[in-house]
Every structure is written in C-alpha cells, then in structure tokens.
Amino acid sequence: MTDSLITHLRHVDLAIPDYERQLAFYTDVWGLTQVAGDTGIAFLAAEGSPERYVIRLRKDAKRLDLVSFGAASAADVDTLAEHLIARGVPLVAEPGTLETEGGGYGLRFFDLDGRTIEVSADVETRTHRRIEERESIPVRLSHVVLNGTDPDRTAQWYTDTLGFRLSDTLAGAEMGTVMNFMRCNPRHHSIAFARGPHVSLHHVSFELRGIDEFMRGSGRVIRSGAKLVWGQGRHLAGDNTYSYFLDPQGNTIEYTTELAELDEDAWHPHIYDMHDEAIQDQWGTANPMNELVARESFNDLDPGLFTAPPV
C-alpha cells in the first residue's frame, strides 16, 4: 500500500482487573479527564486534544483491547476495508457506525500478531483548550509501542497493509532490530514495534506542553509512589524527552515532549546502535538502559490476541 489512509493515532484501550485503582491513577496522578463512562468502563481525554478520548479503561482480565487510528473520511474507511479484504486480513467488524463514545464510522480488524486495530472517521471532537505554562498534564496522546518477536516482520506488514512509513530503527549487532519507529504523518512515530519475548503492550506515551511541564509532571508522578522505570532523558531517534513509569497494573506509560516533525520528502531512515549511550539518552541524565530496565516493558503475554474485545 503506497499511500496511507490513516491520518493519526486516536486512542489506546486497556482492560485491567483493578479498575477503580487504575482509573484513580490516570485521573488524579497522570492528569487525564474522564469524559464518559458506565459500570466498569471509562473514557479518558487529554485536555489539550480534540480527540474524544485517548485512553479507554475497561474492567476485565489484563489485556490490550485495541489501538485506534483516524482516517480522513468514511470513504477512506471503506477503501481501507476493501484493501484489507483483498489481502486476506480478518475483519473483526465491517465498516459501520461506531457505538463507543464519540460515535463515527469505522472498522476493526486483527493485525498479523492478533491485536485488534480500529480505524475510524467522523468521530465527534470535544472542546479542548490550550495547556498553560507550568500546567503539567498531557496535551495529547503521542504514540504507542508494541512488543513482538519479529519487529521487522510486523513493521513490513504495517507498511504493506496500512501504508505506514519507517522513520528509524534501533538495532544491536547481537540481536538485530530492537525497535522500528513508524509514522502515518510527519510526526516521527505514532507507533513502534519492539523486540520482546511475546506479543504485548510495550508502552503508551503522552505528550506534555514543554520541558518544564515534562519535568514537573514527572516529579508529580514520582511523588505519587509510581515506579520510575527509566528517565528523565532525551532519545536521539525522535529527539523526544522521556520518563517511563509503571501504572498500577504494570503497563509502562511515558511522559514525553518535543517529538520530531519530519520533512518527509527529505527524510531517510537511520539505523541507530542501541548500545550507544548517546543514542539512548542524548543528555546523559537517565539511568542506563540495561536488561533489567528493558524487562520492565516486556509486560505480560497478551491473552487477547485474535479475540476482539466485547466493546
């Protein structure tokens, strides 16, 4: 697929057993706003984003329910569905009206690793606002990273099937590709694929207003008692800042800011050496990346593969 019909990342949906604790963390500590919900389900928005919500929490066994992307129009959703069917991609739900918060028109399908992916258009936007100086809450959802045993194969599938473009690769001589950063718009990556022992969620990233807000937000989360996995530092691939934490259910989540915007006509992907400390952290301020740090983001084997969420 040469041109992507996908415009941006909309939301990431998580199922978790300790629903009340998770909801309190994401609203009281992480800085999201609950905009809708029902018994055992909540839709959480970022105050600076027009997206109806950026995270959905659902009470159930721990799993990644789905990853949702936007499309420009209902016609593009239909065109994508035809392309998927022609390639033999299993549809979870054919194009139609969405019943979740914000409505819209969309479809769901399984990617090659069994994750549920949604692509939608005409979703209602929400009234959002400018995040003010020193206001250390997420502006928007930045990106999602997914674990799998063959990140090159997964990245190629997303290129061929969904039109994503490779921005950069992180690799090690002894293990090959460690992470492929993929984009669907000029932002350096909306999704990335990491090498892990199994298919699972690696991390979900949220963008803050700037460096000061990033540091203030990171400090607030540290003071809450949440585990800081890695940070604060600044990657070379994407040029973004990072603070990685564990949420109450053991999912890795990130505060970031200043993710690179690429000139797509001139950009050529790099292969970066994962063992180069200056690539992992340009500033040299974060704790070193090692096997123990990497293992925190392996997460649990996702039990929801090739099984669509009930909502």
UniProtKB/TrEMBL annotation:
Annotated protein name in UniProt: VOC family protein
Q: Which domain of life is it from?
A: Bacteria
Alphabetical list of InterPro entries matching this protein: Glyas_Bleomycin-R_OHBP_Dase, Glyas_Fos-R_dOase_dom, GlyoxalaseI/FosfomycinResist, VOC_core
Record-linked Pfam families? Glyoxalase (PF00903)
Identify the residues that the record assigns to the VOC domain, covering every copy: 8-122, 140-258
